[in-house]
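Support request, priority: normal
Reporter: lab tech (M.K.)
Component: structure prediction queue

Hi team, I submitted a job for PorP/SprF family type IX secretion system membrane protein from Mucilaginibacter jinjuensis yesterday, and the status page still shows it as pending. I've pasted the exact input below so you can check whether something in the sequence is tripping the parser. The sequence length should be 347 residues. Please let me know if I need to resubmit or if it's stuck on your end.
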Amino acid sequence: MNTLALRWLLLLMLLFKGLTGVAQDHLYSEFFNSPLYLNPALTGQFKADLRMNLIYRNQWTAVPGNLSYLSASIDYNVPQFGGGIGLLFNRSSEGTAFLTHTNIAGLYSYSVGSDDFVLSFGLQAGVTNRVIDYSKLLFDDQIDPTLGIISGATSAASLLPFNNKFYFDSGAGTNLAVADFNIGLAIQHLNRPNESFTGLTAKLPMRINTHISYRLDLDSYENNMDDDDKSYVIPSVVYYKQDKFYSYSVGMQYKRRGVNVGLSYRSGDSTQPSALVLSLIFDVFTNRDGGEKVRFGVSHDAAMKGLTYSNTAGSTEGSLGYETTLPNRMDAGTPRFEGARRCYEFY
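Reply from support: The job had stalled in the queue. We restarted it manually and it finished. Here are the results:
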């Protein structure tokens, strides 16, 4: 099979999976740059008052069609209960406008603990729209055997009865930060919504993901050094499972003075190749004392087996984050668990 045929076969497989309702959720290599997508318990878990995150993934650049994924979020830190509230927007486009998902969800988190640990709980609820753009599809009655595609021709093919599908979606999560460990668990699609286009039952499987990180302080002997100036090695493991599909990511980050370099391995299956992921993150403090920070991130996945890199050209992600302190911060009250390690110190 030549390269072009293989690429189109991949595209058709994605479309077929979407029509039958067994597609998996998209996964980000820079999971730490989309914390609300990873786990609703991470809502409001950061130093400043307000945080905004944007991440975009271009999947398999060389495959025909637009395989792209985007998540944008905004959350507010409420110090009185050690958590926050947030809003998450997700959109995926698989194929040249063949199949799109759009989701908007509200999130809430609350924490308990002490100066030794922080245990957070999060809830998520929203609405998802799933649609196929038939104007971008080509049927056999729009093709002339001699002349090829007939310009302006309409097809007699029947539309699916529920082509524009809306459904309620929910999720929950928990996260524990204790000593130098951070451990989290999240479950999405708790209500298992029916996303069928045909009227038959096609329930969306729950997505379960767990994550664990460890922070090793390389400058622990420097008692007078500020934490933001120290060097850290942060190994992490993330495991995803949705129906029969599962994937895990094992990697390590080196972090020093706002520069974060990461290398990880992500496993694959019959439709998703395993990959080696290189990431580079920059934290720019525009006002360190005021808690204002801008984060830029980029990463690239290189397929290791299964689908070759020459067929896919890998996948690329870009992310942007911003944190700021509001003028009324001094009136917000004393932050809870001020002496404890928090989850945001692990990414």
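Confidence is low (pLDDT under 50) at residues 1-21. The CA atoms of residues 83 and 110 lie 5 Å apart. Let us know if anything else looks off. Ticket resolved.
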